[in-house]
Design brief:
By secondary structure, the chain is mainly alpha-helical. It has helices at residues 7-17, 21-42, 51-62, 71-78, 82-94, 116-133, and strands at residues 69-70, 98-102, 110-114. Strands 1-3-2 form a 3-stranded antiparallel sheet. Helix 2 packs across helix 6 (116-133) and helix 4 (71-78) crosses helix 5 (82-94).
Length: 135
C-alpha cells in the first residue's frame, strides 16, 4: 500500500512552516511520544498500550540523528520486556518495516532503523498529523 504523501504538499509545507519538514515531523513524533508517556503516568499503561506505535515513533525520532535506536531502547520506548519487544521487532522486520544492523565495534549491540518503506509511511502519518494541527 502506497503512503498518502504528496511531494508537492511536502515542499509547500516547508515553505509555509519555515523549517524543513523532517525537522517538524520529528518534533511532531517526539510530542506524540511525550504525550503518550505522560498519559501512561496517570492511567494504567496497559489501557493505553500500542507498543508498535511507540517503537515506530522512537525509530522515526532517531532516524536522522547520529544516535541509532537499539533493541534495548525500543524495548524501553514500548514499555515492554525485551523478550516481548523482540517479538514485535521481528514481526515488523518480516513485514519490511525495519532493518537491523550489528554494531561495528560491539557485536552485542544491534541497531535498528526504519526501512525506506516505513520511513515513507511514517512521514505520511506525521505529515497528516502536523497538517491537521497547523492553523
Amino acid at each position: 500500500m502506497k503512503a498518502d504523501f504528496s511531494w508537492n504538499a511536502h515542499c509547500q509545507a516547508e515553505v509555509e512552516l519555515g523549517a524543513t519538514i523532517d525537522t517538524r515531523l520529528i518534533a511532531t513524533a517526539r510530542k506524540i511520544a511525550k504525550s503518550r508517556a505522560y498519559r501512561s503516568q496517570h492511567l494504567d499503561r496497559d489501557l493505553l498500550s500500542d507498543p508498535v506505535w511507540d517503537m515506530l515513533l522512537e525509530l522515526y525520532s532517531e532516524q536522522f540523528s547520529p544516535r541509532h535506536s537499539t533493541l534495548t531502547s525500543l524495548s524501553a520506548a514500548s514499555g515492554l520486556p525485551i523478550s516481548t519487544a523482540l517479538r514485535y521487532i521481528r514481526t515488523m522486520e518480516q513485514r519490511g518495516l525495519l532493518q537491523r544492523m550489528r554494531d561495528q565495534h560491539d557485536a552485542r549491540i544491534v541497531h535498528v532503523r526504519l526501512s525506506d518503506q516505513a520511513l515513507e509511511k511514517m512521514r505520511a502519518i506525521l505529515f497528516r498529523e502536523l497538517s491537521s494541527k497547523e492553523p
